[in-house]
């Protein structure tokens, strides 16, 4: 009985191999056994890895299938730059004439004329182009979150985003992106902060200062998500993840108390305030601003 090859020794960790390469060292039955035992993981049809593939592994596997480097776009490119607010799971690439067919987990796009650069060892659409491409396909709140995140990442500037908006004029969703670009701010540190700020602006509230630092007694300094310093009103977006443990909760409560002792009104915001009760949230803030 033939000895079963150890694929984990045949290929370095995280490396990839095509079916043809594997069959050069083992029989089809042995290959099927390795797959059934979980020693080989299917990345795409005809390409396998020795561990659960990352996005970069999946792109590298496409390189093998296409026989040249795949170009990442949309959410996949945004993830490479670090400003993917949508937790993209599918891999998005250009149709460059190779005639790759979309399949489960793979989206192939026509993007004629899109500028390309290299990031983290991969080819991808440029940061500003990527941000605008993603934003014009999303709802207003999520589009603003993408623009904010792109600016926060420092991969692109407002001027570069505005130039791409002009280059993409006439495309679906570009009018909305042009309007939102005037509101985009790289100081936002999360997508939900961006959504909350849009609620405030849409309801006619004064634009808040973002990531505002409040000086406490002695050497204490606290930073808040939103602030209206003249009214001594601040607002904070609270996520479930932020209060992941007892220590975090106690530290946050002490911070709130310290800011309130200085005469500030602290307004907590949760996701339901932003997405289900936006008018009520705006009225609550307006009340404290006018009190």
UniProtKB/TrEMBL annotation:
InterPro entries: Restrct_endonuc-II-like
Name of the protein: Cullin, a subunit of E3 ubiquitin ligase
Domain of life of the organism encoding this protein: Bacteria
Species per Swiss-Prot/TrEMBL record: Mycolicibacterium rhodesiae
Stored Gene3D superfamilies: VSR Endonuclease
């Amino acid at each position: 009985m033939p000895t079963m090859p150890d694929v984990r020794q045949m290929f370095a960790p995280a490396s990839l191999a095509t079916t043809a390469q594997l069959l050069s060292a083992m029989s089809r039955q042995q290959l099927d056994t390795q797959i059934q035992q979980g020693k080989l993981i299917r990345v795409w049809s005809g390409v396998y890895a020795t561990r659960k593939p990352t996005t970069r592994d999946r792109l590298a596997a496409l390189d093998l299938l296409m026989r040249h480097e795949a170009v990442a776009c949309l959410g996949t490119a945004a993830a490479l730059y670090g400003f993917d607010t949508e937790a993209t799971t599918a891999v998005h690439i250009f149709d460059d004439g190779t005639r790759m067919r979309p399949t489960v987990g793979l989206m192939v796009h026509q993007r004629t004329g899109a500028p390309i650069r290299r990031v983290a060892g991969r080819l991808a659409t440029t940061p500003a182009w990527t941000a605008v491409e993603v934003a014009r396909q999303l709802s207003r709140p999520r589009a603003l979150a993408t623009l904010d995140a792109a600016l926060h990442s420092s991969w692109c500037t407002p001027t570069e985003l505005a130039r791409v908006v002009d280059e993409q004029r006439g495309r679906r969703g570009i009018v909305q992106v042009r309007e939102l670009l005037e509101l985009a701010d790289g100081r936002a540190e999360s997508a939900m902060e961006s959504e909350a700020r849009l609620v405030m602006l849409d309801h006619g509230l004064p634009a808040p200062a973002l990531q505002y630092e409040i000086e406490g007694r002695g050497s204490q300094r606290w930073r808040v998500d939103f602030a209206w310093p003249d009214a001594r009103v601040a607002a904070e977006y609270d996520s479930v993840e932020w209060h992941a443990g007892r220590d975090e909760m106690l530290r946050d409560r002490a911070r709130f108390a310290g800011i309130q002792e200085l005469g500030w009104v602290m307004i907590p915001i949760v996701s339901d305030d932003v997405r289900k009760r936006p008018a009520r949230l705006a009225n609550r803030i307006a009340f404290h601003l006018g009190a």
